[in-house]
Amino acid sequence: MICGASNQDLPSISDLCAIYASVGVSCIDLAADAAVVHAAREALDWVEEHKGFRPWLMISLSDGKDAHFRKAWFDPKRCPSDCSRPCQRICPAKAISSNSSEGVITNRCYGCGRCISSCPFGLINEQDRSIGLKDFAALLQELSPDAIEIHTAPGRLEEFQKAIAEIMSANVPLKRLGVSCGLQGYGITYKDLSKELWSRYRCLNQYGQKPLWQLDGRRMSGDLGKGSAIFAVGLWKAMRDLSPPGPLQLAGGTNNYTINYLPKGDAPAGVAFGGMARKLVQPWLLEAQARRISLRDWPEGWQAALEAANTLVRPWLARQFHEASAIRN
Length: 329
Ligand code: SF4
Ligand code: SF4
Fold this sequence. Notes:
The chain is of the alpha/beta class. The protein folds into 2 domains: 2-66 and 139-328, Aldolase class I (TIM Barrel, Alpha-Beta Barrel), CATH 3.20.20; 70-128, Alpha-Beta Plaits, CATH 3.30.70.20. The protein is built from 11 helices and 10 strands. It has helices at residues 10-22, 34-51, 86-90, 114-118, 136-143, 157-169, 190-206, 226-239, 275-291, 299-317, 324-328; strands spanning 2-4, 27-31, 56-62, 70-73, 125-128, 147-151, 176-181, 211-216, 248-251, 270-273. Strands 1-2-3-6-7-8-9-10 form an 8-stranded parallel β-barrel, surrounded by 5 helices. Helix 7 links the parallel strand 7 and strand 8. Helix 1 crosses helix 9 (275-291). The structure holds iron/sulfur cluster (2 copies). One iron/sulfur cluster is lined by residues 72, 90-91, 93, 95-96, 104, 109-115.
């Protein structure tokens, strides 16, 4: 089970990681950024000391432009003074200020893109924050993660091969290399996606890597409800006989509803939560920030956040995961 903490507001990264590590996720997935990783490690050290276990630390990279690595931006001076600010209302991360002289609070934006289509004047742009391939090796040596997730997309095999060559040149021991790919927005079939995954498998095979496959249903839409959950589960069901060897994990639209749509007695190898995991505990993270303390130093808030996180995680931990040992080993 992976809990995403990419592109999150830096002061809350540490508490976010501490919450989800404490309720038992196997892996925390983070932006490949030294400050973010440092904050997460502090939390994982704390959890190991207090709970006696430590999830893996996974960092996310991309072999090209990817929505997971973008931020929204607009110039508030260009906004009409009578705009009702639909961008602010639609933002699930409270990343657009209510102050009309301010725009996107960059540290809070995780790039879901909903504000972009909400602006009636087309004033919001996306900024690509992905890391260039040539910087992969040095970054990996600096961050020394337990695992990597590489985001790829249909039609990007060549870029993927270059990215993997760079990752391998870093010579950093990895417990797992995850490959995240979906078909949303590419107009392709399940069979086409299968071909894409098999080509990645052959590439990784050359390096002796055993991939974990992450099926990206509807990107960053977990907080949108049942429809996203149904789509993600549908993709997993369709791909389980079409994917190359390796654990198959649900992502992209996963939320509290997801587990209800799985066949009885059956489950994927894992599940990744991003936006939903953040959204559930966001009120306490923001309150702790407003108090200028760590959430762990506010017992009532910490307990409430743990209970909220548990509503998402506990049902999955109670479920028998297929190939769970493969992810742990
Ligand atoms: S709606 Fe999404 S993309 Fe826009 S500011 Fe909020 S988090 Fe960022
Ligand atoms: S919706 Fe567009 S015009 Fe209105 S405040 Fe947001 S960015 Fe500005």
